[in-house]
Amino acid sequence: MNEGSTVIMAECTSLQFVSPFAFEAMQKVDVVRLASLSDPELRLLLPCLVRMALCAPADQSQSWAQDKKLILRLLSGVEAVNSIVALLSVDFHALEQDASKEQQLRHKLGGGSGESILVSQLQHGLTLEFEHSDSPRRLRLVLSELLAIMNKVSESSGEFFFKSSELFESPVYLEEAADVLCILQAELPSLLPIVDVAEALLHVRNGAWFLCLLVANVPDSFNEVCRGLIKNGERQDEESLGGRRRTDALRFLCKMNPSQALKVRGMVVEECHLPGLGVALTLDHTKNEASEDGVSDLVCFVSGLLLGTNAKVRTWFGTFIRNGQQRKRETSSSVLWQMRRQLLLELMGILPTVRSTRIVEEADVEMEPNVSVYSGLKEEHVVKASALLRLYCALMGIAGLKPTEEEAEQLLQLMTSRPPATPAGVRFVSLSFCMLLAFSTLVSTPEQEQLMVVWLSWMIKEEAYFESTSGVSASFGEMLLLVAMYFHSNQLSAIIDLVCSTLGMKIVIKPSSLSRMKTIFTQEIFTEQVVTAHAVRVPVTSNLSANITGFLPIHCIYQLLRSRSFTKHKVSIKDWIYRQLCETSTPLHPQLLPLIDVYINSILTPASKSNPEATNQPVTEQEILSIFQGVIGGDNIRLNQRFSITAQLLVLYYILSYEEALLANTKTLAAMQRKPKSYSSSLMDQIPIKFLIRQAQGLQQELGGLHSALLRLLATNYPHLCIVDDWICEEEITGTDALLRRMLLTNNAKNHSPKQLQEAFSAVPVSHTQVMQILEHLTLLSASELIPYAEVLTSNMNQLLNSGVPRRILQTVNKLWMVLNTVMPRRCPPLMDITLHMLNGYLLASKAYLSAHLKETAEQDRPSQNNTIGLVGQTDGPEVTREELKNALLAAQDSAAVQILLEICLPTEEEKAKGVNPDSLLRNVQSVITTSASNKGMEEGEDNLLCNLREVQCLICCLLHQMYIADPNIAKLVHFQGYPCELLPLTVAGIPSMHICLDFIPELIAQPELEKQIFAIQLLSHLCIQYALPKSLSVARLAVNVMGTLLTVLTQAKRYAFFMPTLPSLVSFCRAFPPLYEDIMSLLIQIGQVCASDVATQTRDIDPIITRLQQIKEKPSGWSGICKDPSYKNGSGDTGSMDPDVQLCHCIESTIIEIINMSVSGI
């Protein structure tokens, strides 16, 4: 296949081409340079020069007039000018018309027709006709031949053909034919586009020479011709004769104009055509621009094609390499062969000059450590060597190049050379090592394998020296260690990923090809025990962050922890991990959290069941506390912290994750009879968790996923630190208002010491001024700056409960405590708002504690395995019971807290004496809606909206609402337990979530206890007023029916006890739901009749009441006026001596009258 290319080059060897000097002179119309050309060089440019001399110029300047005279003087002595002048004297318009007619005739009769309008019947061959013809006929002969070739090209559909033509082959008339060709194209550009002419010339002998002359005489067309030839070219040029001819023609053009060679190469890559041309142009450029030390253009160009981001280009060039290798006989004329040879020469040029292939024995090396037969790689060659290694990796791994024995030998020599201790040297060693792993076939003989082993041993010994000298923290030592660990754990895919990542390319590596390297690593160089012992001695990375890339000691330790190598060989890794956590900074390195997780797993889970003690040691409490020294204090103290906030957050993440994992693995550990130690509660009390979380919140972008992970752990294990109210408070404390307060901060505020605050509190019984002033100044401080004052504040709060303390002081102390609550562990000051805040936190903490305790002690109630064999279904019994007991305890705890809070809402004896009513909240709410202005005026004097009881009631109702929403079962339990009925107006109006009681009131009414039934009906009456909903109506109707049923079954005493407190509820039912009026009135008449029947001895007293009740039912409107008369209400006489039935009858009558009044006033 390469013979055609040889012929192409040979056919033009005897011809003289336009030199770069001459072409540049033509481009710039440099007459001085043109005058210096030799006659043979000038002869090639005559068509253009003659046209310039004869044609009227567009440039009318004086300078061009002078240049034109010089050109005429230059042409005056050349004989061939006369023939060119004769060619220019022809009528080109008539010639173009005849050519157009011939084109039409050929199109009509077919391309193979021998008819010609331009040329009549030829008597002789084209060469003789050309010799004997005058200028017009010569033009017609060449034009006819050229048009015939161009027509055939257009009809060939891309298939290459070779056209034999005497005009373009005869060496005697080549120059005259070239003159005619150039004149024709210049005078008939529309008929003969230069790109089409160039395409046609590729199909004739000496076409490249004609093409160069044509372009040299039209120098401005160079880029147009090159782009056209490339665009019409083949994707793989060396696979066909046409591709090779096109490549050679373009190569000749670029030799004529070398300044545009790289631009033409860019066109090649852009079109993904003619890869051989791109390489050939690069080879020509490399030879002209040879550099001994720098990376050559050939290496850069091929590396860019194979390692660039354009997959299309990569595939295109890879196909060129693969196809080139498939040719059986690859000669020196092949562009691929030339490229490989040039690369090999460059590789051999940088190899150490003094190199012995003798294998050095280990003993010899130890005896003379400073003397080695292995010559080092020169520092100026290291970068070039790295570039060559990456290029060969890309050629072999991406393009599928199969190296020859010579290439493989020289590559191995380069890879095992020893660079200087510089960052570039570290990079070179890493690349060499990964290339050995990726292409193990380069090592084929025992001598080569021993050479590799010696080089790897040298790497291990020199790793520390390289790291200290080069200043690169991520050196090849970590990579060696990491690969060794991967080999020991048989993670071959991880090694492949590591190799591809280091080389910077995705190549296919078969895991089977790593088998020999695995044997060498695991048995000769890095045994597992050596790996673990070496890993502990590797220094930690200082200021480890995500900005430090590459393979670090942390990657090695992580893999060893995953494979449990440390526990297997009893190597302690705790100190190394602790030191690395201390040496961290932002942005957070992504390997830190996985390292902590796998370390915790190695602490809790043994490496094997046979050896349950094979675990790592946890970080001690003393080491943990030392991390947080200096955190508690003002800003000045925190500036002196020894450890970064990153280290503190990571240690906090470790503690929380450890405790969570310990609970999650409780059953597994109990089965293995292991009880790892949990961190003490006193340790957790000393860690400012909330302060650290606040710091992490401001560094979320730099901490990656650490902030969200900490929030998850807190929400699960420390819910009392994740109260929503606290977060809202923190937003207020850390928002814009806080910045404004800082602007108001004065030196006086900073100068107040905790001692001065204590003295001010001591003077509270006498004066409030000083403590008020200090407290106001303290509100301008940040949360961390307030920490030193916390003890004084909390220890003196009991003094603020005394009478006479201004409310502003209480509000300021409350505000300061809320600020401190964002950064400090909780304390218990005796103020209601703070107490409720604390109560909520402790209830949440108690839930988390009991859940953790249940997991920790899960093995205590589990029957032994010997006792449970064959007892199906009995093993889960204790667990279910323990869970139920825990839930019962939590419910009792929450309900007790609610009952205590409700009791606090009752007025004290002193408040009762002042006329404060417990249902003041309800009546004040209703007064806004239902009462008139006069009624409002009456109540304003009775109760002050800002009284202490009212404030306490509001705070308690807010907390109870949150508790009911969080767990509706608490509301159900509390109401089944019951509480004073005088609190019902308060709870129903003050707790928005009380409507959930409608769900369980039917169940509460169905209880056998009379007290619960009474409480349910009273509760329902208030709910109906507050929530007049369809659901309330159905429950109220149920309550009326139940009351009617109870009337028939209750004894006299129980009847009195039940109906006396519940009859007023019927009024509320009627007020909320008028449709119940008939049923309620019937019920009241029935109650009255039953009571009258039991008082036979006092019929005369009862009968009038029954009669009135009946009349009231039948004619309510007639009684409405009488009922409003106060004398009527009091006219029933003294009922104190009456029995229960008589009292109940009077109560019924009052209830009916109230309902009638309500209905009449409503109408």
Automatic annotation (TrEMBL):
Organism: Lynx canadensis (Canada lynx)
Coiled coil: none
Taxonomic path: Eukaryota, Metazoa, Chordata, Craniata, Vertebrata
PANTHER family reported for this sequence: INTEGRATOR COMPLEX SUBUNIT 2
Gene that encodes it: INTS2
Protein family (similarity comment): Belongs to the Integrator subunit 2 family.
GO cellular component: integrator complex
Keyword vocabulary terms for this entry: Nucleus
Protein name: Integrator complex subunit 2
Compartment list: Nucleus
GO terms classed as biological process: snRNA 3'-end processing
Signal sequence extent: none
